[in-house]
Amino acid sequence: MEHAIVPCLTLAPPIEVLLVDDQRAILAGVTALIACESPHMQVTGQARCGREALELAHDIQPDIIVLDADLAGEDGIALIPLLQAKCQAAIVVFTCLTEPDARHRALRLGAADFVPKTSSGSDLIAAILGAME
User: Fold this and answer.
1) Which of 22, 39, 78, 110 is the most exposed place for a label (fewest CB within 10 A)?
2) In whole angstroms, what is the distance from residue 107 CA to residue 101 CA?
3) pLDDT by residue (tens digit) across 55-106?
4) Does 5 reside within a domain?
5) Residue 59 sits in which domain range?
6) Exposure pattern of 75-113 as b/e (b: 16+ CB <10 Å)?
């Protein structure tokens, strides 16, 4: 008796995202947005300051870090190389700052993308997916 060969379907593991923002409402909103992308994407941690972000980046080893440039007066952009030293995550800066200098500085320091908070949720999701390529 011959057996049919059935291909084994494997699902890629979800993209693990660390959110870094000092505003609870932003953390909640982006978490809800990413939850809509389940099972392909999930939030694995949230940090409200640089110290927490560095600890979680080391402990969690996320695929992507969504980082605010202004963490209650703390320079989030300056965290980019420090975060990259803790993990291999791509960093998407998600911020209210709209000055071209902030964008250029973030990209120069190693951010994969820079998304204004005035953008649509689909723009942020696209930036996360683009950073994974």
Assistant:
1) 39
2) 10
3) 999 999 999 999 999 999 999 999 999 999 999 999 999 999 888 999 999 9
4) no
5) 15-131
6) ebbebbeebbebbebbbbbbbebeeeebbebbeebebbb
33 within a domain of the structure (yes/no): yes
Q: State how many domains the chain has.
A: 1
> Which tokens go with 26?
């932003």
Average pLDDT over residues 6-15: 70
Q: Compute the distance between CA of residue 36 and CA of residue 29 in angstroms, rounded to an integer.
A: 11
pLDDT in tens, 21-51: 999 999 999 999 999 999 999 999 999 999 9
* Calpha distance 86→45 (Å, rounded): 15
